[in-house]
Amino acid sequence: MNPEKNQLASESGQVIPLDAKTYDSIFEHMLNGMAYCRMLHEEGGPDFIYLYTNPSFHRQTGLGEVEGKRVSEIVPGIRDSDPGLFEIYGRVAKTGIPEKFEMHVEALGDWFHINVYSPKSGYFVAIFDVITERKRTEEALIKSEERYRNIVETANEGIWSIDSRGVTSFVNPAMCRMLGYEAAEMIGRPVEDFLFEEDFSAHRWGQIERQAGKSGVYEMRMRRKDGETCWCRLNAVPLYDDSGKYAGSFAMITDITDKKRTDELVWRQANFDFLTRLPNRSLFMEKIAAGIRKSDRSGLPLALLILDLDRFKEINDTLGHEFGDLLLKETAQRLVGCLRSNDTVARLGGDEFAVIVEDLGDLRHVEHACSQIIDALAKPYSFQGQAIYLTTSIGITFYPTDAGDIETLVRNADQAMYAAKSKGRNGFSYFTPAMQASAARRLKLANELRTALEREQFRVHYQPIVELSTGRIVKCEALLRWKHPLLGEVSPSEFIPIAEDNGMILEIGDWVFREAMKQASIWRKQFDPDFQISVNKSPVQFRGESSWGGQLKDFGLPGSGICVEITESLLMEANSTVKAHLLQFRDAGIQVSMDDFGTGYSSLSYIKQFDIDYLKIDQSFVRNLTPKPEDMALPEAIIVMAHKLGMKVIAEGVETELQRNLLVSSGCDYAQGYFYSKPVPADEFEKKFMKGPG
Ligand code: C2E
Ligand code: MG
Ligand code: MG
């Protein structure tokens, strides 16, 4: 039931009349300020008079008693400062159409939200709230928004937001500059339009932080409008709407292209060989570790090849380091040309290279690759219009069959490479367990050698050298013997190279020399004043200062009592130190033999440049001697030429009477070999071969 005007509806549905007291009470308790006024039109401008105001009016405006007074009286200057207020009040009082507005009333210094209506023409009621506080907050908010907008617009960092579909919704000017676009060209386009294709699947920004549900920092490449790529670091934050649904992402983006370039440079310097631009040892180690992990996953074996150029040092020393560098560069290129793109070629240092061949479905592929490498490197290199030939030796080992760790693999490949070298270079060798065993034995011998001298495990044996024209024993060769309490007799051809490697040969060789001098001076005094003992001297022993010439007088021995046996390789690398040694021998009267002639370079014209007294024809020649003219041709030629050059010839390894006779008829001067005697201890030698004078 609709209550009549001036009536109140009761709870029980009864209608009760609305009395003046109730009216008053409604206005009295209202929280809004309220004023009932009449518009006035004075000469000085519009004005109004307060007819009724409620208590909230005073609270809100801070004004005292106003009823019956004009506003211009109570708030002087309000007409000038706030003409808008009068305009609205006047309009409402006139038209009767209510209005609602917010206004800052200067004269009162506050913001008001005002509802105004007109109960009868010329009158109006204003119901209002002071909203200064709210306005201030709003203003502050607007200001800070402006400030933020400013920051975003002027930031050096790119700012970019995308919606939930990955479509660009905002980019700031820095972002536009970074990629070379106008904002309008970017907005509305999917983010993948700007990403570098290769990185796309890995770095879909938007997806990453969305899935993770938190912000993320990552680096990726973006594509600029001009087609260039630039490296960016993204700090991306996922955004959610009020219902918690993913609404897109917002990212702060920094251009890190320059930093990436420097990083890359530093990385290259640390991981690549400057000369050949191949990976260096450190990157090689990483690659082989990665290769091993890959092989574990795929079950396919991996091959490690270690290559060492043959006689590179010689070329480097004779033709100069600049050419040596060119040679290495070209070798690197040839190597790369032989291999598949996923194989790794590295330079381990000097003239040593490594190749990692992964995913070996067929082991024969390695052999094929090796042959290709050997062929490619065997092609001549050009040096000042001259052809230079270089060969290489390759060691091969497999993971996981030969070893389970990098260190052992590298050691295996090294051993196999040395085996290839000792097989005659320019070839390849696979690692075998036998190689491992021999490497272990070498290590053991090397250790034992260190104490062999002080433990008196060495002896010198002597092998007679016979003058063929008379059959007299006029010389002998001192040959070292090592008897180890557990290992037994160890052959000099096994332990001498080890002693050369670890430098022990210097001490041991000096000891042999002193033994030989002692023995020579005894035998010369007691039996034969012209007797001579030959002592072997390896190239390594020619590296330091020489003292042998000076030691003779300690034993009262003239130089002619000793002959030093050297090898051809010594003359090939003959430098000033070697020459000084040889000169010292000549000055002291010590003779020099060229040992094992015919196994190395065998260049008589080269030997001529040095003072060599004897040529020892190697046993491999003597062994093959038969009366056939074609077998005799070479030894005969050597003997004739040696004589022409003023050298005497000693044949080594004479084992049969036939060999002896053939050598005699060829004009050979001396012979040494089992046909006469094996090397024997000094006392036995003395008993058997030395006869007192007369
Ligand atoms: P080498 O100087 O050529 O010595 C000759 C080698 O041939 C010796 O081997 C000798 O025992 C062996 N030989 C002699 N006659 C015959 C024969 O009729 N038939 C056969 N099959 N062999 C014969 P050895 O004593 O085993 O020495 C091997 C090598 O070790 C020597 O070759 C020499 O290069 C080196 N060597 C030995 N002693 C010394 C040393 O004191 N100092 C240095 N630096 N090297 C040494
Ligand atoms: Mg010798
Ligand atoms: Mg020899």
In short:
It contains 27 helices and 29 strands.
Topology of helices and strands:
Blueprint: E1 7-9, E2 15-17, H1 20-29, E3 33-42, E4 45-53, H2 55-61, H3 71-74, H4 78-81, H5 83-95, E5 99-105, E6 110-117, E7 123-130, H6 132-154, E8 158-163, E9 168-171, H7 173-179, H8 183-186, H9 197-200, H10 207-212, E10 216-223, E11 229-240, E12 246-255, H11 257-271, H12 281-298, E13 302-310, H13 312-319, H14 321-338, E14 344-349, E15 352-357, H15 364-378, E16 381-383, E17 386-388, E18 391-399, H16 406-422, E19 428-430, H17 433-452, E20 458-467, E21 472-484, E22 488-490, H18 492-502, H19 504-526, E23 532-536, H20 548-551, E24 562-566, H21 568-572, H22 576-588, E25 591-597, H23 604-607, E26 614-617, H24 619-623, H25 629-644, E27 648-651, H26 657-666, E28 670-671, E29 680-681, H27 682-689
Parallel strand pairs: 18-19, 21-23, 23-24, 24-25, 25-26, 26-27, 27-28
Antiparallel strand pairs: 1-2, 3-4, 3-7, 5-6, 6-7, 8-9, 8-12, 10-11, 11-12, 13-15, 13-18, 14-15, 16-17, 20-21, 20-28, 20-29, 21-22
This protein binds ligand C2E and magnesium ion (2 copies).
Residues 595-596, 616, 652 line the site of one magnesium ion.
